[in-house]
Structures are given as structure tokens and as C-alpha cells.
User: What shape does this take?
Amino acid sequence: MLFGEDFLSGCRKACMTPEQVGMYIYMLILEWTDKAPLDDDMRRLSSRTGWDTRLVKRLVNELVALDKYQRDNGQLSNERMEYEIGVYVTKLNAKKDRREVDTSRAANRIASQVAVPQLSDSSSTAIKHLSEKANKNNEAETEIGLYARARQIQIQNTEREDKPLYPLSTDHQRVAFENGRLVLFNGLKQQWLKNFGGDEIALDLALTQAAAYVQPASLTRSLEIQVSSQLARMARDKRDKDTRYEKAVKANGKGQKEPELDRLRRLMAPALEREAATTTQAKRLTDER
Assistant: This one.
């Protein structure tokens, strides 16, 4: 955004004060962030910089007088910054156009080579959403994105939408995602209940937590696989904590008597020493008599 040598040279040549340089940097950063000229509104600039309105007004007028910023139709702009923004936006749009062309070609190739199952209306909407999300990604599209684009092309070329994307399998029949909650049935709940020690409340809490991480519309991983992965991680953490707790309890149980005995010995040692010294002294006096 800032070209160091050019910026420093321009500030030195204009004999700018530290306040002017600070305001200049602030305005350049704001203009680059907005990718647009700044509003010629001193209150707004004061709010965005956190500086006093009178100070901002004075410094802006000074920068305009130094020809560092230009006023035009209620806006403030820097000529060099506007040029750099234009170059950046042009390159970004060109990159986006190239990516869309490459993606379209790849999707057409996949659509012609891969037999993609037909979609129901609801599944078609989900795939369209995935495709739109993939188009917004600045990186290369993933295989899922290409698959979605290929399916979109097939939808345009055929009217057959009476079959689901995936036939309902036994995996999907054991897990359901309803109203933001996960429901286990067909024996799967009992299976996981054992891993949580028969605690239904703990299992329900784990399912509630897992619901925030699963992707019901995933094309690569079934819902049961995702849920099982989350529950396995939670059950393992619970087991590790229980094991550590049991070890700590056993260690404390074994060590209670010995430390207590040592403490009593330490407290009684001075008294025993004094008693022994007194006894020795009394015996010596008796012998002398």
C-alpha cells in the first residue's frame, strides 16, 4: 500500500510536521481499507481516528494545502492511492475472471466424464449453495466445488430430478439431524450410551455439542461418520479424565498416613529432645551428690 522511499521523500520535501505525517498515514490507510475516497466529513474522520474534531479539521486543511489530498464533490482522495487501488481492483477482477473460466472448463470436463446421480429439489438447492460458496473462494476450487459445478451443468441439461443424490443407506438411517439436533436410533444410541457409562444426560450434551460441528449436506462424509468421530473424541477425553482422577485418588489414599506420621514426629522432636536433655542433667546431678 505504501511505497517507503516515495512516502518518506514526499514528506521530507513538503517539510511536514509529525502531526501532519500521522494524519497523512491515517487517511491513506482508511482510503486503502475502504477502496474508495474518504468522505469530507470532519466528524466522521474524527470518529475513525479517535482525534479531536478541531485537530482533524486543521490537519486535513493543511494536507489539502500541501496537495497531499484533493477535495472534490464532498470527498477527499490521494491521487497515488487512487491509482494503486485501481491497479489492485483490476488485477483482482482479472484473476477472478481467469478462475471462473478455468473452473467452468474443469466442471464441463467432469460433467462429461463422471456420471453424477440426480438430485431432488432440496438437494439441488444445497448443491447450488455449495457452488456459490466455492465461487467466492479466492483459492483454487476443491473437488467438491467442481462436483457441484458439474452437477449444476447437468441440471441445466436435463429435467430428471426425481431421484435423490444418494440413496438412503443404513448409515444415514441411524442418525438424523432435526431442527438443529442430532437423534440416534436403530441401536446406535445404546451403542454410544455404553461408551458414556450409561449416562443419558452426558450423551445428550455430547450430541448437542457435536451438532455444531457436523455438516449434514456433506458430499464426502456421511452424517453417522461425522457424529461418531465427534462422540469418540468426547468419550476418549472423558475416559482419560476419569483415569487420571482415579490415579490421583489412589495416590492420595496411599500417602495420607505416612505424611501425617512424619508431621507428628517433626512436631514432637523438640519436646523429646528437651525431655532427654533434662533427664540426662538430672541423672548427672544425682551422681554428683
DSSP finds twelve helices and five strands in the chain. The two ends are 105 Å apart (CA to CA). The longest strand covers residues 175-178.
